[in-house]
Automatic annotation (TrEMBL), chains A, B:
EC number: 2.7.8.8
Keyword Lipid biosynthesis found: yes
Pfam families noted in UniProt: CDP-OH_P_transf
Record's bilayer topology term: Multi-pass membrane protein
Protein name: CDP-diacylglycerol--serine O-phosphatidyltransferase
Keywords (A to Z) from UniProt: Lipid biosynthesis, Lipid metabolism, Membrane, Phospholipid biosynthesis, Phospholipid metabolism, Transferase, Transmembrane, Transmembrane helix
Residues passing through the membrane, by range: 15-43, 122-141, 147-165, 177-194, 200-217
Amino acid sequence: MITKSLPSIFTIGNLFLGIVSIILVFNGNAPLAAVMVIIAMLLDGVDGRVARALNVQSEFGKELDSLSDVISFGVAPAFIIYVVAFQELAPAAGWIVTALFPICGALRLARFNVISGTPGYFIGLPIPAAGGVLCTMALFQENIHNIALLLATIVLSLLMVSNVKYPNFKKVGIPKAAIWVVPIIVIIAIVIALNASPDTLSKLIFVPLLIYALYGLKKNVDTLFRRRRKQQSEDVDAVEQQL
Amino acid sequence: MITKSLPSIFTIGNLFLGIVSIILVFNGNAPLAAVMVIIAMLLDGVDGRVARALNVQSEFGKELDSLSDVISFGVAPAFIIYVVAFQELAPAAGWIVTALFPICGALRLARFNVISGTPGYFIGLPIPAAGGVLCTMALFQENIHNIALLLATIVLSLLMVSNVKYPNFKKVGIPKAAIWVVPIIVIIAIVIALNASPDTLSKLIFVPLLIYALYGLKKNVDTLFRRRRKQQSEDVDAVEQQL
């Protein structure tokens, strides 16, 4: 019974941290709110792996996972950036962009649950990565102009519903014998996370997450250019043949 | 194309209002935030019916609906009551009960999506009704003690994951010929909702929603008593036979 419920306990932990993040940012602690989202990412990375390792995957678990993700990586990061940066904007712009992020996240999750993707790849930026970038980026609010943050939020939202391919690390599983190490690693990570300065920690984590988000974008732009060059050389060939 | 997307547009409208509700309560307007949840309930009641009437039901639409519901009727109402009533409580109590509500809501939605229920009935209080009761109840904060609100939030959360049967009005469909009347009704309802005093409006809507939530509970208690009486009379019969 506990074995069967273990993955769902991690998923519920993820959702719980999403709500705590919303409460923390309401109480004026955006850096700690961002840390909660990051710990939620960790739990989200664990639940599916634990389920596969214990062979207790279920449709219920998958549904619960999506519902937790849309809160912790959709609503919470959007609310963090709203409070930190978009409050002062005109309500129309601030509200619409704040809502756009979880809307695109929900569209991404709904699509992910119904289509069978390419093995080893995600189609569109996964919502945990997008939410991670958004909430850590919010902490640079003093260094980045609000309009740039607004545009970045729009780009992140659109990347989620795009067809850009992202590498999928889900196949990096946990050996069954090592399954009981997972809770210990999670606890150690949480202890470290809570002892470091939340602001520094979140800002550090921003870097790899941003690289991941940009990686897919760059690869897609490369493909686009390659296709165009190929098209151009084909056009040149066709013209030469005609001559 | 538009016909196919129409139900999803209502669903996205529901999610959008959920986010607007969170922003409004953050900006100190709990009554209008509650009105947003109520309008979202209206949109939620419409999307499935429109999909059925136009025969464009889809797995994607169902997933998107759950993701919107957990935000508009799980997170938004919980955040409203947190801001209005639970802020002053000890963080442990306030945070846990605030998170309990969307957690139970997500469990309810995940269960609903994977099990086939009894026709004509919902098993457990549906999350839109629970969220509607919670956010309108929050407006009576001056009249109800915070501890009572805390207990009521716990009861509403548990009713969602309970096996209490609730009547399902989903079968009350819209005739296909009348489908284009729906957006007009929605717009009229929104105009009325926005013109009435948000506080009065939400408090009025609290009453039928509470009756619905209590109805299932009462019916369940009745069944429990009937079963007990039956058991007792059977016990008496058995004793009499033995004598």
